[in-house]
Amino acid sequence: METFNFAIILCIISTSNTFYLPGIAPVSYCPEESATDSQCKSAIPLYVNRLDSPTSLILHQYSAFDFCQVPDGIVGPHENLGQVVFGERIGPSPYNINFKKDETCALLCTKTYKPGDQASTNLLTMVKEAIEDNYYHHWIIDNMPVVWCYAARAGDDVTSASSQSQYCHAGHPVGCYIPPSGMVEGSCALDSRMIDADTFYLFNHVDITISYHPIDAEIKNAGRLVDVRLVPRSIKHPPKSEEGEVCGAHQQYETLLFKFPLKEELTVKYTYSVKFLENKEVTWASRWDYILESMPHSNIQWFSIINSLVIVLFLAGMLSMILMRTLHRDIAKYNQESAEDAIEEYGWKLVHGDVFRPPRRNILLSVLLGSGVQLITMVLITLVCACLGFLNPSRRGALLMCVMFGYVFLGTPAGYVSARMYKSFGGIRWKTNVLLTALLCPGVAFAILFFVNIVLWAKGSSGAIPFGTLCALLGMWFGVSVPLTFFGAYIGYKRGVIENPVRTNQIPRQVPYQSFWTRPLPSILMGGVLPFGCIFVQLYFILSSIWSHGFYYMFSFLFIVTLILMLTCGQASVLLCYFHLCAEDYNWWWRSFLTSGSTSVYFFLYCINYYVAKMSMTGFLSAFLYFSYSFIIVLAFLLFCGTIGFFSTYWFLRKIYSVVKVD
To answer: How far apart are CA 164 and CA 156, in angstroms?
Structure first.
């Protein structure tokens, strides 16, 4: 218990320094006249990322649309493996921003669309569909997302970093669409002039506000960026006028609207304004705070989480106390029986000759256990790295890279556990066991991912993993994970068979008739309720961060909840196994795995509920992608919880039968 409390204290302390602990150096900026390559830079690059939508899981690159593009030959930063798999496509933009140099309505480019021209109609159609499907831009400045903050109450100032009544979204919409019904919603509701039914409004102007923290003590007139916000606007610029006359936030201007198909020529001028503000209160190390604290759906309900943890710990303590008292009484009673009473055994001692009888389909069970140990080790290593700050949101793709590399390089424990358990089951098909351990679970996940990828390729989505990256993943699998699994299996087979504390009878004992609640299916489903109860609060925030394109940063709480989940899974499987043994049902091998593994059933039901109640996705394709990815996560959850339940029960049975006198 002291070790557990120490882990909680360590993780809570680490949250105050989660960001920028290891390896990320700040970039200093200064005016153009005093810029040097070694000390500070003047030019502030703005990078564009993928476009996504809350109503669709089809991602698109910025360059796929008819927006302002950079000249050929200019490349952006290279994405790491995690970013590519996650669908990020970061590229350069034509925006010209220099430190402390304000811009007012700077012209970026001009696009013209003519009715009847097939080429321009096709280009406008893509923009129109992006507006209709509520797609969002995602821009990056100084490794920070450019956020769109909008007031929670009318009249609030969204440009102030100290504004508390606002929401900040890590992206801004391409435009907004008012359907024929005339219902105004979404970003259209922020401008009272956007009221025309069946009309598209294009946001062709952005007001960018960049706040910096001065560092005059280190470099004169220099600063570090701590806040980047923008406000998108729809402005119909006059054809031949000074653009600066109509871009002011407080000036009257017409909105840029169009109906589709076009009836007349449409000219779109993309412009932007930049304003720099000094901010001495926010430091560079805490510059992510306002994003994480003000994003919609990410105000963590601290009291709900703490309440869930307290309830789960209380129930776990009660289960442990009842179980240990009952066991202590049973063991004392069995050991005090006389020789004459030994022939009238009862309870869980009665099945001592069958409790360690090898299970059916033992090769599949051993494979799942090996893959489960591999997954559990990977999850714990990832969470520890996240708590220490190595996987913070500023390290794009680092979380997914840690998961992939961790799983690949942990093939040795998988092979060892699978081979050792299969040998203890008395299995002789060791080649099949090793191949299934290396190929079955990763193969199922890869097959689903590959099929989904074909669909994304067909739709031209940037979320599709490039062919070269797929080959790299296959190379990691067959070049690293499979050999390590073979090596672990070799070590496992070299070890001796695990000796059980009691002998197994040659003739299996008949299992008596069981009541409804001790039958396999009801008891298995009942065993997953308690573990699910300790994670459902965190599941909401995890799913929101995945499907609502947000940031998940409460890894300390997630680590604590994971430890509670492991404890609860083990205790639920042990408790139900004890009840079945008392009912003279010794078929516990698969049941112990599936009892805690049934938590994944409730997880999948929760995913369905989240899709119906929280998601606003439309179309069969988005539903197909959502449930395909969810199925992979559910399978991983089954392995994680099931393996913990199995080994907890295995340890428990070896303990209780080793202290009982059996003739």
So the answer is: 9
DSSP 23-76: S-----B--GGG-BTTTBBSB--EEE--EEETTEEEEE-GGGSSS--PPTT---
* Tokens at 342, concatenated: 């030994």
Q: Where are the alpha helices (DSSP H) in 356-429?
A: 362-387, 398-409, 411-424
Vertex 522, ends 521 and 524: CA angle to 5°? 65
pLDDT tens digit sequence for 355-407: 888 888 899 999 999 999 999 999 999 999 988 888 877 788 888 999 999 99
What is the DSSP code string of 131-190? HHTT-EE-EEETTEE-EEEEESSTT--TT-TT--SEEEESSEESEEEE-TT----GGGGG
Q: Please, which residues bridge with residue 106 across strands? A: 272
Q: Pick the residue with more confidence: 343 or 82? A: 82
Q: Average pLDDT, whole number, for the chain?
A: 82
pLDDT number for residue 57: 87
| Predicted confidence (pLDDT) per residue in 545-596, tens digit | 888 777 777 788 788 888 888 988 988 888 888 888 888 788 889 999 999 9
User: Using DSSP, how many helices (H) and how many strands (E) does the chain show?
Assistant: 18, 17
What CA–CA distance (Å, rounded) separates 436 from 361? 13
DSSP track, 276-317: EEE-SSS-GGGTTHHHHHHSTT-S--HHHHHHHHHHHHHHHH
Alpha carbon of residue 59 to chain centroid: 17
Residue found by looking up tokens 């919603």 in the block: 185
Residue 297 clears pLDDT 50, i.e. is over it:
no
The alpha carbon torsion through 441, 446, 448, 453 (nearest 10 deg) reads: 170
Q: At what angle do helices 536-547 and 302-335 cross, to 10 degrees?
A: 130
Angle at 422 between CA 416 and CA 425, to 5 degrees: 140
Residues 6 or more apart from 1 whose CB is under 8 A from it? none
Residues paired with residue 223 on neighbouring β-strands, in sequence order: 29, 214
- Residues 6 or more apart whose Cβ sits within 8 Å of residue 364: 436
pTM as predicted = 0.85
**CB atoms < 10 A from the CB of 544, how many?**
18
Residue 333 has pLDDT above 70, yes or no: no
Q: Which residue type sits at 467? A: F
Q: Which residues contact 81 (CB under 8 A, 6 or more apart)?
A: 397, 400, 401, 404, 469, 472
